[in-house]
């Protein structure tokens, strides 16, 4: 019969399985930060193929000072729609997600993503006429 045991002397999140006639199996859950939003990569692949984020971002007029722009319109758009697709319906989670490596990979940025304030300003760029209609 298999048995699972955890020992308080072991590191937190470690478990060993002793199965009859098999090697001892050790599981360690201290592997660092893990993201459950792996489906974003599939979404990004579909987005790349259909070019939806790129086309949609063209409808938003970017009136920011271009010398001060850190995040492009398409990066902001992708960060926002990928966050929504992951179940983060508002910008409040941007502080946590901006350093999430899976979200950075999906957006295509190796550095920190936009802050909550930047995303909120971005959402307010779209006006009710031309951009929303497009």
Describe this structure in words.
The chain has 134 residues and is mainly alpha-helical. The protein has two domains: 32 residues, no CATH class; 94 residues, no CATH class. The protein is built from seven helices and three strands. The chain has a three-stranded antiparallel beta sheet, with no helix packed on it. Helix 3 crosses helix 5. The longest helix has 13 residues. The relative contact order is 0.14.
Can you give me a brief rundown of this structure?
Helix content is 40%, strand content 9%. By secondary structure, it is mainly alpha-helical.
Helix-strand topology string: EEEHHHHHHH
Q: Would you report the number of β strands? A: 3
Beta-strand proportion = 5-15%
Mean pLDDT: 79
Structural class: mainly alpha
Query: Outline, from the CA principal axes?
Result: elongated
Low-confidence stretches: 1-11
SSE topology:
Layout: E1 3-5, E2 14-18, E3 25-28, H1 40-50, H2 52-57, H3 73-85, H4 94-97, H5 101-107, H6 116-123, H7 130-133
Antiparallel strand pairs: 1-2, 2-3
Helix pairs in contact: 1-5, 3-5
Quick tags:
2 domains, 134 residues, elongated, 40% helix, mainly alpha, three-stranded antiparallel sheet, disordered N terminus
